[in-house]
Write a structure and sequence with these properties.
Length: 594
DNA sequence: GCCGTTTTCGGCCCGACTGTTTTCAGTCG
């Protein structure tokens, strides 16, 4: 059982308790535990194996013992007894937007949806045949809403990679700014927090005339369909099929709106709990002072905030960068003024993961761009250095001797290029190689090859599904070779395609720290690997990071900012990322025997 | 059922929107 499945199970228990009208706080406890598991990047089963379930927020003695039973026996007797009281078809219906536990129960019961596997299809059919509106408590409009919800469910299953969401948002923002009524526009939600995957694009506009701004928004020519248009908000579907929401607010209150809809939900819940202890009640409109010297008979007064900075300051906190708002300790840190000074894109002085088109008959994709274009681009970006990290020559097609001579050939071609450019070349080039880690942890090239490289990057490109202990030993063995300085895209995940490997990262961090090996934050938006929460843990363990775009063509070197976004989500400061060092300093770290 | 800078007992986030049950429950972010 993976995290998503465990989270779903806990969510189903919460929903079942809701239908059965259990204690509301017990319901919330299960639903919070479920969300916490869903947001975990560590494998929860691994946490259980190591006796660390207590570290998961929201998991106390009762839920821990249920999870213990789940991992030992594959099921939880108590949960099954609870579920038995309800139709099994109820649970898939919870995924339809607009359908919660109570409605799902009524629908499943009245429509006789008693199996999980075809529940959504049966609901859809019932809606199309007008069966839903006949149920007490539902009408024609709820029936229509459910059918729209089912469509949205099918569409929502593929979230957007960050750049797709960012580019769509920028198009709409550019259009919105054409209206003189729009005083300010900002991105909201997971997009503003620069999360690796984004659901809908949410935007906020500051205006004194919300109706005019909403009208302008719905007139955007690229909408396929306008879903809703109110006095202060609107929602539309873009021709790409992606949903865009707009919220408006007066400039005087814009700070509170921005804060509220930037989230994350977990951050906001934690912030409200913290604020309540001070007698403040937060909302998207501002802060109500519910305790202390409010005037009698007047009720709580609402305080307005133009900016987020003022909003956080009023709560006794410093402004928290959106990337950090995931309830990972940022409120505590903001209280003590102990927030890190996050690194920024202009501090990046080089790209440590680039593939060229020098043909050494590689095991994986050859780059598309010649070294000359790569260096030109690097100089344009103001880089002091780049690392050429082509894949190793394929092992099956070459003898060891041939591999060595291919690497020598590549070195000569790089050296010749550098000579030809002479003193005018501002960017220095590291000769490296991205070497495959074999299933047993050995490297896929003869050790002799390492002598011809400035440093080595190693990466996993196969056998992603080994069990944790094996995968951990595999990585440790790979990291023990001389000259290995960077572990490339450490988890091997591909967003929306496959999960990363299961591995005891704590052990890997120890090895990296001891041997001065750097963990890559791969900036390719399909990878963004290490993931943000592991970045945070790595930094806490004293491990330093290496940024690389994994570019196979020069255009992709521009994707560095997405890697920087993720390091910021992992609380990285300038000192945590070796790319912030100048050439002389980083050469000392990477080239061990120079 | 969880949790701790007023608490190991007694609390537990806030408001908008929607549709239908004509006064509010359910759902969402």
């Amino acid at each position: 059982m993976n995290n998503r499945e465990v989270a779903e199970l806990l969510g189903n228990v919460a929903a079942a308790y809701e239908v059965l009208e259990e204690n509301p706080f017990k319901i919330r406890a299960y639903s919070q535990a479920g969300e916490a598991v869903a947001n975990l990047s560590e494998d929860i089963r691994g946490d259980w194996e190591e006796g660390k379930l207590d570290d998961v927020p929201g998991v106390g003695p009762a839920i821990r013992s249920h999870l213990d039973e789940l991992f030992r026996t594959g099921k939880v007797k108590h949960f099954e007894e609870v579920f038995k009281k309800l139709p099994a078809g109820l649970f898939p219906l919870l995924n339809v937007p607009g359908v919660g536990p109570k409605s799902a129960f009524k629908l499943a019961k009245q429509l006789g949806i008693d199996k999980e596997h075809n529940a959504i299809a049966r609901l859809k059919k019932a809606g199309e045949q007008g069966e839903i509106e006949k149920i007490e408590g539902f009408g024609k409009e709820s029936q229509e809403k459910i059918l729209v919800g089912i469509e949205e469910l099918l569409r929502r299953e593929n979230k957007m990679l960050l750049p797709e969401a960012a580019e769509l948002a920028e198009r709409v923002i550019e259009y919105l700014k054409k209206s003189p009524q729009v005083l300010r526009v900002e991105m909201l939600g997971s997009l503003r927090r620069r999360a690796s995957l984004v659901g809908d694009v949410d935007l906020a506009a500051a205006t004194k005339n919300p109706e005019a701004v909403v009208r302008h928004f719905v007139d955007f020519p690229e909408w396929k369909q306008v879903l809703a248009e109110g006095g202060i908000t609107a929602r539309a579907i873009h021709r790409s099929g992606r949903q865009v929401d707009l919220k408006t607010e007066s400039p005087e209150r814009f700070g509170a709106l921005l804060q509220h809809f930037t989230g994350s939900k977990a951050h906001n819940v934690a912030l409200r709990e913290y604020s309540l202890t001070k007698g403040f009640s937060l909302s998207e409109h501002g802060i109500k002072i519910s305790k202390g010297p409010t005037l009698p008979r007047q009720g709580p007064t609402l305080k307005n905030f133009k900016t987020e900075e003022e909003f956080y300051k009023f709560l006794g906190l410093v402004w928290i960068p959106p990337e950090m708002r995931e309830d990972r300790g940022e409120i505590e840190a903001g209280k003590l003024n102990g927030l890190p000074k996050l690194m920024e894109l202009p501090q990046v002085k080089g790209d440590l993961h680039i593939h060229s088109n020098i043909d050494i008959e590689t095991s994986h994709d050859l780059g598309a761009s010649p070294l000359s274009e790569i260096v030109n681009q690097a100089e344009k970006m103001g880089y002091e250095y780049i690392a050429i990290t082509d894949h190793n020559p394929s092992v099956s097609k070459h003898s060891e001797k041939q591999i060595v001579s291919l690497i020598k050939m590549r070195n000569e071609s790089i050296d010749e290029f550098i000579r030809s450019r002479g003193m005018s070349m501002k960017t220095r080039v590291f000769k490296s190689l991205e070497i495959d880690i074999l299933p047993d942890g050995r490297l896929s090239v003869p050790e002799e090859v390492l002598d011809f490289l400035d440093f080595v990057m190693v990466s996993i490109h196969s056998s992603f599904r080994e069990i944790r202990a094996d995968q951990t030993q595999r990585l440790i063995r790979a990291l023990s070779y001389p000259k290995v300085k960077i572990l490339g895209h450490p988890t091997g995940r591909k967003l929306l395609e496959r999960d990363g490997i299961d591995c005891d990262w704590g052990e890997i961090f120890v090895v990296c720290k001891k041997r001065n090996i750097y963990l890559e934050v791969n900036a390719n938006p399909r990878r963004l690997d290490l993931p943000d929460d592991l970045i945070k843990q790595a930094i806490e363990a004293g491990v330093k990071l290496s940024l690389g775009t994994d570019s196979h063509q020069v255009e992709n070197m521009e994707l560095m900012r997405y890697g920087v976004d993720q390091t910021r989500r992992g609380w990285a400061e300038r000192k945590d990322v070796i790319n912030c060092l100048g050439y002389n300093e980083i050469a000392k770290l990477l080239i061990v025997n120079c």
